[in-house]
């Protein structure tokens, strides 16, 4: 598996991903794609045959806060799931975040992600890579629904 920063050539991937997971409004999907490519930092993972997936992170509350949110990680197709790609993608993402902060000489304090209660595989991947449960959010997306905030802390 190889990876690279997302570029404008990946715009359709993010549009399709938005339409599949978040809603059917084309205009919002296009804005989401632009944000993933031009505003946030997205890593595209692929092999010789196809795109495996992408993971996107963003700086929250300004660079000096040291806060980063990983806000999307998707493995593109079912035949690529269960092969350890999610773990490899997260490892590369964490390395990218850490090296980015080191390069700009700012302290990284915390990386976090909000994960849906049904996404047990995702929750396990984050725990495996040093993310701890920070808080449970009840009634997050709908009544009776829970999400979990996981964080990897860098401050002492």
UniProtKB/TrEMBL annotation:
Q: Which residues form a coiled coil?
A: none
Which Gene Ontology molecular function entries are recorded, alphabetically? acyltransferase activity, transferring groups other than amino-acyl groups
The record's annotation in Pfam families points to: Acetyltransf_1
Keywords from UniProt, A to Z, are: Transferase
- The name under which this protein is listed is GCN5-like N-acetyltransferase
């Amino acid at each position: 598996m190889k990876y690279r920063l997302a570029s404008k050539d990946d715009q359709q991937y993010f549009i399709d991903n938005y339409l599949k997971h978040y809603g059917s409004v084309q205009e919002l999907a296009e804005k989401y794609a632009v944000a993933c490519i031009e505003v946030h930092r997205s890593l595209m993972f692929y092999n010789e045959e196809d795109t495996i997936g992408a993971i996107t992170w963003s700086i929250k509350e300004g660079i000096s806060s040291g806060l980063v949110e990983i806000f999307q990680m998707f493995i593109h197709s079912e035949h690529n799931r269960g092969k350890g790609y999610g773990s490899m993608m997260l490892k590369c993402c964490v390395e990218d975040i850490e090296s980015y902060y080191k390069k700009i000489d700012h302290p990284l304090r915390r990386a976090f992600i909000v994960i849906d209660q049904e996404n047990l595989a995702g929750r396990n991947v984050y725990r495996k890579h040093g993310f701890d449960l920070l808080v449970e959010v009840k009634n997050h997306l709908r009544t009776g629904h829970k999400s979990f905030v996981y964080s990897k802390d860098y401050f002492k």
